[in-house]
């Protein structure tokens, strides 16, 4: 989802397990209050919260934030449009596409197996 030109502009993500909200803000060029807002708007963005409700983001959260930023700032999506795009994105959740004829064939095969038992 991120275009190659955007990857060059943002710093590399260091090999750490957790990042604070300030570190993520620097890595993604987004202010912390924007990250907190996006957390409320995008259900996929769920940083770990510990002591005193402090947020700790993982690497996949940083990548997700960069995707959200690209959708909103570079591609011109609205918050609702970006939310919809991310929920429809086949890369987000790998959903196998099976048509009805394949399902019928699988049911017949399973019925044959049951009859043999």
Automatic annotation (TrEMBL):
Keyword Lyase part of the UniProt annotation: no
Pfam families according to UniProt: MerR_1
Q: GO: which molecular function terms?
A: DNA binding; DNA-binding transcription factor activity
Keyword Oxidoreductase appears in the UniProt entry: no
Q: Which CDD domains match?
A: HTH_MlrA-like_sg2
Would you say which domain of life the source belongs to? Bacteria
Q: Which residues form the HTH merR-type domain?
A: 18-88
Record's keyword terms, sorted = DNA-binding
PANTHER family given in the database record? BLL5018 PROTEIN, REDOX-CYCLING DRUG-SENSING TRANSCRIPTIONAL ACTIVATOR SOXR
Name the UniProt record assigns to this protein: MerR family transcriptional regulator
Origin species: OM182 bacterium MED-G28
Give the taxonomic lineage as stored in the record. Bacteria, Pseudomonadati, Pseudomonadota, Gammaproteobacteria, OMG group
């Amino acid at each position: 989802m991120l275009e190659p030109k955007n990857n060059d502009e943002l710093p590399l993500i260091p090999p750490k397990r957790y990042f604070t909200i300030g570190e993520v803000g620097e890595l993604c060029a987004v202010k912390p209050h924007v990250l907190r807002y996006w957390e409320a708007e995008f259900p996929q963005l769920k940083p770990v919260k510990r002591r005193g409700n402090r947020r700790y983001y993982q690497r996949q959260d940083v990548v997700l934030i960069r995707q959200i930023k690209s959708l909103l700032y570079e591609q011109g999506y609205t918050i609702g449009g970006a939310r919809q795009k991310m929920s429809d994105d086949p890369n987000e959740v790998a959903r196998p596409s099976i048509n009805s004829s394949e399902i019928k064939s699988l049911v017949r095969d399973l019925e044959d197996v049951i009859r043999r038992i």
